[in-house]
Amino acid sequence: MQGALSLMELPSNLSPDEASPEWMNKGDNAWQLTAATLVGLQCVPGLVILYGGMVKKKWAINSAFMALYAFASVLICWVGWGYRMSFGDKLVAFWGKPSVALDEKYLLGQAFLGYFPTATMVFFQFVFAAITPILIAGALLGRMNFIAWMLFVPLWHTFSYTIGAFSIWCPDGWLSKLGVIDFAGGFVIHLSSGVAGFTAAYWVGPRLDKDRERFPPNNILMMLAGAGLLWMGWTGFNGGAPYTASTDASLAILNTHVCTATSLLTWLVLDIAVSGKPSVIGAVNGMITGLVCITPGAGVVQSWAAILMGLISGSVPWYTMTILHKKVKLLRHVDDILSVFHTHALAGILGGILTGIFAVPKLCRLFYLIPEWERYIGLAYGLQTGRTSAGLRQMGAQLAGIGFIICLNIVTTSLVCLFIKLIVPLRLEEGVLQIGDDAIHGEEAYVLWDDEEKYENKQVNSAYGADEYPSVVSRTLSELQMV
How far apart are the first and last CA of the chain? Predict the structure, then answer.
């Protein structure tokens, strides 16, 4: 008997101790930290270099820095009050009580879901919270006052993101109890950022007319590098959503890449069919819409459904962006520079609706692992199994989630922008808009002067007003050419 017991003893590296309590699964914890790091890499350097390469040369530094600032700013808000407002004790049906997430006793305890410590959950959810305002920035590049952006990020995070996250992802949230399926953030992140970005772009105002007419990327290869990090980082984005290194996580990862590849190819074929040219920027847009569309249902739909979702996400946003955009006055009026309305809001809506159609009951059981898993059923499977009312109920829940997130972000984003406008201008002055990075940050992405001349140039910048600066630069360049 003693020999049998000794054979059943765990290896020493798996035995629980003070640093590895019995409730913790080391594999799950390792995967969750890895997934969080992959999502973090989507932000820095992913979106930092994608934005920096996708805009006009004079806005490369400012655009990249908006992303970098948001990442750092959200982290402080998150541990200060944001995490507990999103996943803590309920204050009201759609919001948690603000409180810090900095105490070791709290952070080393078991997370509200999963077999890993709360510290891991705080970090994992932080990178999702951070990428959302960075996506909003995509609609505001090339004209927003950086000081206004510094105020916008913590305010929007506090009064919009935390409400959406608590309502849909926290077990006590009203939309969570209603049964909304948002596997990894199609509503909480992408629909939110798309609607908020479009709304903020309305209040900030447009770029200069000449920038709206011609705004070429300054470095397409760098843009592609950022896009590649975004795509590969989505392995952690959707693969980490089940909070465990499970079969469902594996399926979610495969579905993510299948849908994305299908969407990219669909967009590419449409570009060639209409314009005769395979557009690199178009392919990146198709990649993004595929990633966004699969996110609400990555681990709860079949892989053949992921292909259908890719076909839809590569064609419907393509149509709205390239054709419908020119016909709708509001879309033409609002200067949504990177088209976050089409690539995130619309693709998020499509993903949420298609998830409501294709969600498989068995896969929902694997994902949710709760007694009432049967309430999660796509309309197609409800019709197939005679549970039509359950399928219609699921579709109703999806539409309720979409409607709530849209209304929430129109209202809160507008209020935040109007409040900031009382303190500082939302839009940069015309003279600064003419110059770009050097006028705002005193730095440029691609410097052609040696160190001494660059220093002298900065002295000129400080000695002359913004309106006079372009003529000073022209004279300086003329003198250099004469030499």
Answer: 94
